[in-house]
Write a structure and sequence with these properties.
The complex is a heterodimer of chains A (664) and B (206). Chain A is 29% helix and 22% strand. Chain A is of the alpha/beta class. Classes of the chains: A alpha/beta (664), B mainly alpha (206). Chains A and B meet through β25 of A and α2 of B.
């Protein structure tokens, strides 16, 4: 403290924000202002309703000029919210922006403290800490680093496709990585899309082929990202290409190998038709698969398993595209921005035993029925029971695996609408009586309520009540041989038993099973339940807390196709904004090693970014500022305390602590 | 048949008990009551809801809204067999069975339960038998229950009772523990520790 008092040239201005009543209702502002005036080097202190507003910023600028202030403390919200604002204001008044320090008296004080007296005390302590810290600040310059011009999109569902096309259309190179053998995602499996009943394939497949032929898109299917290094604007990504045992450039998708396969009949569950049909070991995922290239499943191919097949597929291929010696390959790409569009998985209803999925053959999931309804599906569009007959009555249960503390507490958002769509399609194709069992009908969206109206006018029975049980135990003769739904009709207020031929479980959406891996790989946070966390739920919905990485689609939370596409556009826009700028501003928070370094190399091995090396001539450690991310690991590990980090020097931190300790 | 006369069905806010829900929700085990989304899974799974005047879901809605009289006088709370199906299946993890118990206790305290209905009598006789002897003698419990509810029913059940006694399934000898006075001191201490308003009145024990 005495050291600062000797330096008379420091003139600190303290500005306390009311934030409307957000802070003022819990903190005695005038008391904090009077207190701030008593702190060392404080030349001016005042308060204002909204410092972040234009007049608020103008107030700061005016006082910098009028009172010759050269350090600014703003006591308001979090730096995440407005540090940029106040640094810019200081810069406009001719001050180095890094002479600004914020004290967070909203999130850390007024919002979390009930008692006015103790909040005022804490606000004072934080202001004191900021005042003492800012006196030790240095004038710093923002570092600028050029960005790589290409973009990586992870996930080839509708969100990934849309993002990739948008960016590619602006003449930027895009790498689109998809782990399945084809792009298209879940949307490719759907039949119609609500509320307009567009055929999903009709609107999706043109986009899929655009991706395949786009000169700016490198499509990497059957591939996965295995490592990500670097930082915003400069990522190096390693991609694993899994072997398809088919040379992608040679195959034209003629299916001659599939016809020739030693298995005359398809015998293995078809993933695309969710196991409702069979495929051969060599197969095309579905007719419009993109790229139009077959692949061989090593789990079922005799040649790949035992090496004893006569390999008629190889003979059948006149382009010599089949290569049983294919190995996995790795590809390194340098990109400036990354968009994650990794999607969701449908809820597995066998976790709710009372609904009998897997026990009763005629209990289906929504996705299975999508395949049944689809003309290219396992039944050529016929909605039939397992015995081949048409159902006369169908029960559709909403909220399966949603709005339930035992499975997922959230609403999956799409189930009400797709249940109504399935009700419509089933009614149209089979003329069966359809019952929809809902808890609350959520039809919020453009044209959704109108679609609900339409389905209601088609005399679909909607019963408000969560089904308690699906059982084959008949109580009346009419129930014999049927599946009985036990439910309370809550609007009538009586328990009912409703016999049906077919039950459709409208399963909710869950995060991908390996979301934790994605989270670790890309250094992304997750919100509760495992959805990727956006930077701000309203104002930064596609950004993440890792700069340069954006999210789009259902990996961020359950959403329908229109929302996925909108978000993909937003993520593409953010990625293009980053790349078009040409450089990124990095916080000047790099570490440096001072001259009395002993050359022990502890920091070199501690640095997670390989940013430190030993200068052979001087024997001192040297930090490469372009690589340093400012994590502070070297500072903590240096045994002689000569590694220091800008913006977090020992003096600054000690002064901050002293400030808190001395004024409470 | 068509009901004679036309009754007023509206409920004015003044007729409701604003504190009723708060009292019930503060009973241990009933704390999730306000999370109910009225999905009706409890009533759908309840093996007895087909006999109830209000389904369990409606009881929760009415409790929350303050329909105290209707709830406490309903048969629903006494028909609940404590099978816990609803509690197991409730998506909001409401312990509906515990709510039913809280309502039963409240009905006994307010003396608004159906007078000759066997369930509350059985509950009280069970409690008083434990209080006095430390054990429950099933034969006498049933006898007392029938005497206080419907003595004629006892005649219909007497053959079954005789057969149970004959095959040694049910004894007539009153069972008891050794230190009955000690148990009573213990129970009294428990009762003193309970907050006064939630205490079962002493008269109800007999």
């Amino acid at each position: 403290m005495t050291a600062i008092q000797g330096d008379g040239s420091i003139r600190i201005g303290v500005f306390i924000c009311h934030c409307g009543i957000n802070i003022a209702a819990k903190v005695n502002i005038s008391e904090v202002v009077e207190f701030a005036k008593t702190l060392p080097h404080v030349a001016y202190a005042t308060d204002y309703q909204f410092l972040c507003s234009d007049p608020g910023q103008e107030l700061i600028k005016t006082h910098i000029r009028e009172n010759n202030l050269n350090r600014i403390v703003v006591a308001s919200c979090s730096p995440l919210m407005h540090e940029v604002t106040f640094r810019r204001a200081a810069g406009e008044a001719g001050l180095n922006p890094f002479y600004v320090q914020m004290a967070n008296i909203r999130e850390q004080v007024s919002w979390v403290t009930k008692d006015m007296k103790s909040s005022t005390t804490k606000a004072k302590a934080l202001v004191a800490a900021a005042v003492r810290r800012v006196a030790r600040h240095d004038a710093l310059e923002v570092r600028q680093v050029p960005v790589k011009a290409d973009v990586l999109v992870v996930g080839g569902g509708i969100a990934g496709i849309q993002a990739a096309l948008t960016i590619a259309n602006s003449d930027k190179k895009v790498y689109l990585v998809e782990r399945e053998p084809t792009i298209g995602g879940h949307m490719a499996q759907f039949d119609k899309t609500f509320p307009t009943l567009d055929c999903a394939a009709c609107i999706l497949t043109p986009k899929m082929s655009s991706v395949a032929v786009h000169p700016n898109i490198t499509l990497l299917t059957f591939s996965e990202v295995v490592s990500v290094e670097g930082y915003t604007g400069n990522f190096r990504v390693r991609i694993k290409r899994k072997p398809r045992y088919v040379i992608e450039d040679k195959c034209v998708g003629c299916n001659a190998c599939v016809d020739a396969c030693i298995y005359k009949q398809p015998r293995f569950p078809d993933e695309f038709n969710v196991g409702l049909s069979k495929r051969k070991p060599v197969y095309m995922p579905f007719p419009q698969a993109t790229p139009s290239v077959v692949l061989i499943d090593p789990e079922s191919c005799i040649q790949l398993k035992k090496g004893t097949c006569k390999m008629p597929c190889v003979d059948a291929c006149d382009r010599n595209a089949i290569d049983f010696n294919q190995k996995e390959e790795f590809l390194d790409v340098d990109v400036g921005a990354i968009i994650l569009a990794t999607g969701y998985q449908p809820f597995n209803p066998s976790r709710i035993p009372e609904y009998g999925y897997g026990k009763y053959p005629n209990v289906y999931t929504g996705l299975e029925v999508e395949r049944l309804v689809n003309a290219a599906g396992p039944t050529q569009g016929q909605i039939v029971l397992k015995d081949g007959t048409k159902p006369k009555s169908v029960g559709i249960i909403h909220c399966v695996g949603s709005r339930d503390q035992k499975t997922n507490p959230y609403c999956s958002r799409v189930c009400c609408m797709y249940s109504l769509k399935l009700a419509h399609l089933i009614k149209e194709r089979t003329e069966a009586e359809v019952f929809n069992f809902y808890i609350d009908m959520r039809a919020a969206g453009k044209g959704y309520e109108e679609f609900y109206d339409r389905v209601m006018s088609e005399q679909v029975q909607v019963i408000r009540g969560r089904v308690a049980e699906v059982t084959d135990w008949a109580v009346t003769p009419e129930e014999e041989g049927k599946l009985v739904l036990r439910v309370e009709d809550t609007l009538v207020g009586v328990a009912r038993r409703i016999p049906v031929d077919m039950v459709v479980l409208s399963v909710g959406l869950e995060p991908q099973p390996d979301v934790e891996q994605v989270q670790r790989l890309f250094n992304i946070s997750c919100s509760k339940g495992g959805w990727l966390l956006e930077r701000h739920p309203k104002l930064a919905p596609v950004s993440t807390f890792t700069d340069g990485i954006f999210i789009a689609g259902a990996c961020q939370g359950p959403k329908d196709i229109p929302d996925c596409v909108a978000q993909a556009g937003a993520a593409a826009g953010e990625a293009m904004a980053l790349i078009d700028k040409g450089h990124v501003d990095l916080e000047p928070n790099a570490a440096h090693v001072r001259e009395n370094c002993s050359g022990c190399r502890t920091c070199i091995s501690a640095c997670p970014f390989h940013a430190i090396s030993l200068d052979k001539e001087t024997g001192l450690s040297v930090v490469n500022e372009a690589l340093c991310k400012g994590c502070g690991t070297c500072v903590a590990s240096c045994p002689s305390g000569v590694a220091q980090q800008q913006m977090f020097t020992d003096e600054q931190i000690y002064e901050e602590i002293e400030g808190i300790m001395n004024y409470v | 048949m068509f009901q004679q006369g036309i009754q007023r069905r509206i409920k004015y806010q003044a007729e409701l008990d604003g504190n009723f829900a708060k009292e019930i929700v503060s009973t241990p085990g009933c704390d999730n009551l306000f999370s109910c989304i009225q999905c009706g899974k409890c009533s759908g799974t309840c093996p007895l809801s087909l006999y109830m005047d209000y389904t369990p879901r409606r009881v929760i809605a009415m409790t929350r809204a303050g329909f105290k009289e209707e709830v406490l006088q309903s048969q629903t709370i006494w028909l609940c067999a404590s099978c816990y199906s609803c509690t197991v299946e409730c998506p909001k993890e409401i312990k509906i069975t515990d709510v039913m118990y809280a309502l039963k206790q409240r009905a006994i305290r307010d003396k608004v339960y159906p007078k000759r209905f066997p369930t509350p009598i059985l509950a009280r006789e069970f409690f008083s038998s434990i209080w006095r002897y430390g054990r429950n003698t099933e034969s006498w419990l049933i006898v007392r229950m029938y005497l206080k509810s419907n003595p004629f029913k006892m005649i219909a059940q007497s053959l079954l009772g005789f057969n149970l006694w004959r095959t040694g399934r049910m004894g007539l000898k009153p069972e008891s523990i050794k230190d009955r006075a000690g148990l009573q001191r213990l129970l009294e201490a428990v009762e003193q520790a309970e907050p006064k308003e939630s205490r079962t009145p002493a008269g109800e024990r007999e």
